[in-house]
Amino acid sequence: VPIGIAMAKSNRLQRSLLPLLDLLQTLPTFVYLIPLIFLFSVTEPKLYGIAIIVYAIVPVIRLTDLGIRLVDQDVVEAANAFGMSSRQKLLGIELPLALPNIMAGVNQTIMMSLAMVVIASLVSAPGLGVLVLRGIRNLELGVGLIAGLGIVLLAVILDRVSKAAIARVSTDQTFK
Predict the structure, then answer these.
(1) CB 118 within 8 A of CB 133
(2) Which of 62, 134, 136, 159 is the most buried (most CB within 10 A)?
(3) Are 7 and 14 in contact (CB under 8 A)?
(4) Domain spans of the chain?
(5) DSSP calls for 118-145
(6) Which has the closest alpha carbon to 30: 109, 155, 122, 133?
(7) Tens digits of residue pLDDT in 72-98
(8) pLDDT tens digits, 54-65
(9) Protein fold of 2-174
(10) pLDDT of amino acid 122
(11) CA distance linking residue 121 with residue 134, whole number of Å
(12) Is the full-model pTM beyond 0.90?
């Protein structure tokens, strides 16, 4: 989110980061694991977390940038007229109005992370992905199905929690 905020505030930064974000978004999923295999010989589970974060972070950066850029300039101008500082405008006006876009990015990031869990299991990452892979490799339909359903259930729960959080924040702001 901070990178997206910085991009929204600086056209120059946005122009310089967009090609990198485009590249990250178009790379095949498995490519994110290659540096781990060659550089670190993949022994630490937290290294998989880094690969998953790098893979999944692009939507939240892009949608934070977009959300802040889409804030109505009349509202920002009114905040300027009331003498709000840049920080006050960001925290009190821009972020709350951009929150639906930011949360859509967070939601996409969560879903992409869960998809990467199964891919990461191909190079021995721990977790539910290993069980899905075992089910595929050994034709253990029950194991693969239950683990896959666990990942889907986790995705649905996280989706609902993130949507409930945005609904709660939106209603809290309405009554203030």
Answers:
(1) yes
(2) 62
(3) yes
(4) 2-174
(5) HHHGGGT--SHHHHHHHHHHTT-HHHHH
(6) 122
(7) 999 999 999 999 999 999 999 999 999
(8) 888 999 999 999
(9) MetI-like fold (1.10.3720)
(10) 76
(11) 9
(12) no
